Amino acid sequence: MGFFDKLKAAANSVTGGGATVSVEIGTAVRGQPVPFRVRATAKADLKITSVYLLVRATEHAAVRDTDARVGGGTKTELVRGREESYTTRIDVSGQTTLASGAEGVWEGTLTLPVSALPTFRGRMIQHTWEVQAGLDTFGNDPDSGWVQIDVV
User: Fold this and answer.
1) Which backbone phi and psi does 32 adopt, to 5 degrees?
2) Phi and psi of 116, rounded to 5°?
């Protein structure tokens, strides 16, 4: 490995750029298993500690609040809030390696609790679900970024 290869490997470990990662998942029905697939293509040789799927649900609210001012008039502002209502990590695979240019595919199932809120989008309140697939490697983990999914 030459000097520039070492620099590139170091940069990939800092930025998470050692692989491209994607996740495929359909509509999830609470209480029923839903299959998912994680794909990764290595940009350099990778030693992977684990392949994982992060799941989170977030409730968002945006409400207009109007206050009367002393001396007359009103002041209206938009009050925003968010709260995670569900979060979990699923370990899909243990230790493995990917050679530069190689693609890895891992499959699993996700079962969300029946008591979890479904996806909904109202005028002031919404509840969203997202998944993120990642590779646990040295440095910053390459991941798919957060991908929105529908939960019914």
Assistant:
1) -120, 145
2) -70, 150
The token duo for 59 is 């409730």
Task: Tell me the HSE value of 76 on the side-chain side, using a 13 A CA sphere.
Answer: 3
How do residues 4-49 score in pLDDT, each as one tens digit? 454 444 444 444 478 999 999 989 999 999 999 999 999 999 999 9
Q: In the chain, what are the domains?
A: 3-149 (2.60.40.640)
Token couple for 136: 């646990």
CA distances from 9 to 6, 18, 27, 100, 143 (A): 5, 8, 37, 11, 17
CA pair distance 87, 66, nearest whole angstrom: 34
pLDDT band at 1 (very low <50, low <70, confident <90, very high): low
Tokens read off for 33: 């298993």
Q: What are the two backbone dihedrals, phi and then psi, of residue 13, each rounded to the nearest 5 degrees?
A: -70, -30
